[in-house]
Amino acid sequence: MISAELKEQYYQALVAKDSEYEGLFYVGVKTTGVFCRPTCPARKPKFENCEFYETAQQALLASYRPCQRCRPLSHPNQVSDVVRVLVEAVENHPEKRWKGQDFKALSIDESTARRQFKKRFGMTFVEYARARRMGLALKNIRSGRTVIDAQLSTGYESGSGFRDAFSRIMGAAPTQVDEEHVLKASWIDTRLGPMMAVADEKALYLLEFVDRRGLEREVERLRKRTKSAIVPGVTEPIRSIERELAQYFEGTLTVFHTPLFWLGTPFQKSVWEQLIAIPPGETRSYQDIANALGKPTACRAVAQANGANQLAIVIPCHRVINASGELGGYGGGLTRKNWLLTHEKQVPE
């Protein structure tokens, strides 16, 4: 999370077009919906209309599109024709899910696209397209505005275009849902990046980092298994987890009390109970958990149950490491996992 002091510093650099800050931050302009480099020649926005990000991916996930004047995705050197064509294609159809034939239609090799985007932006083309699409679909969640406002602000001239983009991720058009089977989704900003929270009026169903690989599939699986529509909104469990996450990152909370809905098999739930039993600041191996369950040969099944957890941080799957002491995998990324473990070791009991 960027501190208030650093935001002031970044804003002064933006006003001065200070080239020394190139690559250190990007600025999202609320009034235009674009994000820029520090040296953008466009008229400077007011400070209160700026949001600062450390990476272009963070700006994309916050629903901002690349500025056409300073071209933040083209710096420092001019991008290749492959990257230019694909960036333009995504902007023309940001809601699109890319498949092999789409690359062939543009005479672009899929592996080349992946490699060039990874080298230039630190993320693959698919990750870039997903970030842009996710940012658009979640903009309504983040702002709390009406569907029509979100539709217009994302550049859709027709309601059908926006509803299609929304439903590709949420699974239901925002105005065509059954009130008796509705889960609400909200955007929560945290120190480690934005998270999506999904809940009904009684319990929290899902809490994941927005940029987690496969999040769209998780949302779709949740929607189908609960036979619910997922629409933008806030419930008391969402308000509760937002407060508790703020306290957790401040180092003043170690145990979460927000009610949870565990959508899993009996075995998965037994694993998750073991995860919650791991004290903050400590770790366990998959084998440790299998032994605690009285099923020492179920190490692989424990790992799969750990990966199936849809309530990040709250059910602390980040506290499970390999028997060798290595971090192992984590849906939110190993950098976040390492940060969480270090943070929890520093929190006083």
TrEMBL record:
One of its GO terms (biological process) is methylation. Gene3D superfamilies: DNA Methylphosphotriester Repair Domain (3.40.10.10), Homeodomain-like (1.10.10.60), Methylated DNA-protein cysteine methyltransferase domain (3.30.160.70), Winged helix-like DNA-binding domain superfamily/Winged helix DNA-binding domain (1.10.10.10). InterPro entries: Ada-like_dom_sf, Ada_DNA_repair_Zn-bd, Bifunct_regulatory_prot_Ada, HTH_AraC, MethylDNA_cys_MeTrfase_AS, MethylDNA_cys_MeTrfase_DNA-bd, MethylDNA_cys_MeTrfase_DNAb, MGMT_N_sf. It catalyses: a 4-O-methyl-thymidine in DNA + L-cysteinyl-[protein] = a thymidine in DNA + S-methyl-L-cysteinyl-[protein]; a 6-O-methyl-2'-deoxyguanosine in DNA + L-cysteinyl-[protein] = S-methyl-L-cysteinyl-[protein] + a 2'-deoxyguanosine in DNA. Residues 104-180 form the HTH araC/xylS-type domain. Keywords: Activator, DNA damage, DNA repair, Methyltransferase, Transferase. GO terms for molecular function: methyltransferase activity. Pfam families: Ada_Zn_binding, DNA_binding_1, HTH_18. It comes from the Bacteria. The keyword Nucleus does not apply. This is AraC family transcriptional regulator of adaptative response/methylated-DNA-[protein]-cysteine methyltransferase.
